[in-house]
Amino acid sequence: MKAIVLRILLQRPGLDRTAGLFRLRLRAGGSQIVLAAFVLVAILAPLISPQNPYDPLQVLGWDASSPPGTVGSGGYAYILGTDGLGRDILSTIFYGLRISLVVSIVSSLAAAMIGLAAGVTAAYFGRWIDAVIMRLVDLQLSLPTILVALIAIVTLGPGVDRIILALIIVQWAVYARMVRGVALSETRKSYMDAAQLLRMPTLRILLRHLLPNSIAPALTLLPIEIGHAIALEATLSFLGLGVPLDKPSLGSAVANGFQYLMTGQYWISLFPGLALLCLVASINFVGDDLRRRLDPRSAAR
Amino acid sequence: MIQEPVVPSLLQMEGFSLEHRSVFGPVSILTDVNFSLGYGEVLGVIGESGAGKSTIGNAILGLLAPQFVRVSGTIRLEGAPIDDRTLERDIRGHRIAAIFQDHTASLDPLMPVGKQIRETVLALDPALTVSEAKEVSLQLMTRVGISDAARRYADYPHQFSGGQRQRLVIAIALAGSPDVIIADEPTSALDATVQKQILALLRSLVDESGLSVILVTHDMGVVAEITDRVLVMRKGEVVEQGRTAAILDRPQHVYTQSLLAAVPRLRQTMAARKVRSTSPQWSDGRSETPILSVRNLSRSFATTGPKYWPWGETAVTEKPFALRDVSFDLLRGSVTGIVGESGSGKTTIGRIMAGLEFASQGCVAIDGREFDVTRPGRRSGILGLVQMIFQDPSLSLNPHMTIERILRESIRYGAGDVERPSDCAAMMERLGLPRSLLSRHPHQLSGGQKQRVSIARALLARPRIVVADEPTSALDVSVQAEIVALLKEAIAETDMTMVFISHDLALVQDLCDQIHIFKAGRIEDAGSPHYIFSQSTHPYTRELIAARSSWFTR
Lengths: 301, 554
Description:
- The structure holds two protein chains of two kinds.
- By secondary structure, chain A is an all-alpha fold.
- Chain A has ten helices and two strands.
- Chain A has helices at residues 2-10, 18-48, 89-125, 127-142, 145-156, 160-187, 190-197, 202-238, 250-257, 267-294, and strands at 70-71, 77-78.
- Chain A is elongated.
- In chain B, strand 7 (180-184), helix 8 and strand 8 (212-217) form a beta-alpha-beta unit.
- Chain B is of the alpha/beta class.
- Chain B is globular, with a radius of gyration of 26 Å.
- In chain B, helix 4 (113-124) crosses helix 5 (130-143), helix 7 runs parallel beside helix 8 (192-209) and helix 8 (192-209) packs across helix 20 (539-547).
- Chains A and B meet through helix 2, helix 4, helix 7 and helix 8 of A and strand 16 and helix 14 of B.
């Protein structure tokens, strides 16, 4: 990690533009480190967690609702306290990260790809193809997100894979509408005319010319939507329709502490919430940096 | 003849330097600009894009973004330095007013124009009653040449033509009876004939009421037409200033000389030019069969084209025509100029020939083979037979591809031949582009270079017909001349047939064998350049020729 910090500090492009770029680099570099740390923790959760919160044998009921710092009967300290069932909050966060990250990233990437394909297709072909796709998008977006997700979960049944599917159904339309708008203005630019004049295969025009120039806004949207996905998954879990109760995600860990907030047991909700905040913020900053780098016209490249 | 102003100067800029400070560090925008504007004087500020000419106007008006920081210098109005507070309260609108290029953006589309002028009058003089302000507004409208002002008072901006809208913007600028008007490219968005009228209006305002004008422009023609003195800007510095006549006749600085040399000139007598042909038919070995014929082509704005839903009705409402019953032939190896003002259908005809748009009626034949151009290009089969060079080079190259990939794509798909890597390099060389550019992306190239790549792409597809749609309009004057020279060369080397679409008669004069003049979707006049410039008595042709500034008609 020290090496990364050093690399960021030493990347100075010309003196005149150092200061501004440096700030951008520092923010991007910082959030990259935070995000990398989160991912690392998620991967290594079984090795570094003091306790496996999914294993009923390791969870000690009489340690329930211990405040942060309490040394439990297991012999180790509950650094961030325990929840109402006696699960170590730190371990819950570590394990919860895995579920939250996998669910949100997989669903957002899949939704982005479907949305990109749909948006570009609608913009390029126009007419009835456009009409069909966009009316579908309208239908999707006119219903409240949570309602669509609920209907999907109720129809599909519970389970992590079903949640991912439900989130894809909820999210693709957002990408499709945004990408279509951009792609529509790109199709009017004369480089698209030039491609037409060369009688290139339609697929090549779509993939080589239209798609790369319409992808930037989808990438900007991606981190925001990953954040949304994490929140939506938490909501579904809160309603008892998300991930199974015995395998809490970051979101449902927050929801778990909801009923204890009134009695002053803040740590059950607060720490998973803070973890969620840092996670979403770092994803946003990294996404911002990614967009800047992918745009060939950007000076920060 | 205008006298040299002897009275003390009205507005002065002394040692003015400006920097743009962004996260990327400071960039110098203006360096040590000195000038003074006399009473009743029109000062032209000319330069190519990025020269800082608009920044001067904005600096005087205090309209600069906060990142622009004054490094040194003062601006004085009648000797008193302007500061931000007096500027806001007493000067902007009252003493110094502005006219901007885009007359559409300068007017509120949801408010009657009369009311817009009245509001300005009231804001600048709160002592007036509403009815007095209306009276003043009507006078202003009449003064800028809106006939029947009382009747048009309640009309909305869209009910006026572009030229009339710019007149209304001038009326608003005059509302506070200012001493100085800063006009930033006031006529650049207008057609040549309308441009002439607006400039005449500005000049008459100056002559009648002692108003002074700072006219920011990139067009030497505008400078020659109405300015008394001129400031030549380059990269934020004033390279030359002086009396307009003196600078036009004896430019001292090399840059001014090159700017002047680059302006396309109109010659009314063709004696100086070796006339290639007096009739559209060739006498030298070239074939006389047309390579492309356009027959009775019409295009109405209401599309009779593809339906939105497969089972839906086709829209056939009678609407104004973009093209009406247009027919002409292109002779093999000839260059045909299509000239017209905006809305004349000149771009539409070019795009129909290339198969990028469809017509409502008529057909296009290439080499005797007829194409049903009422269908989209891919289906009618015409797509790909004609290549195009587009107006805006920044939009015509895919920003995500390197120059080499752009050109190779053209070789591969255009000619249907085997891809030969040597072709790219050879073409680059032919068009005067360094080979090192092959690995660059379009945004790393200048406008002129991008347009050359665009030409290279069109030529590498080895078309027999090329349509160039205003290929120089988005470029600076000095680059325009290079591009035209390049096209001339390219045509001379091959047996390519070319259509050159332009709004500028002077530009097509030397290039074309045949000129068609379009107006409102019809061909108004057609013939060889010799005929068009020296013999044609068609009133519209004469009007177009007269619209050019007289200084450049020699």
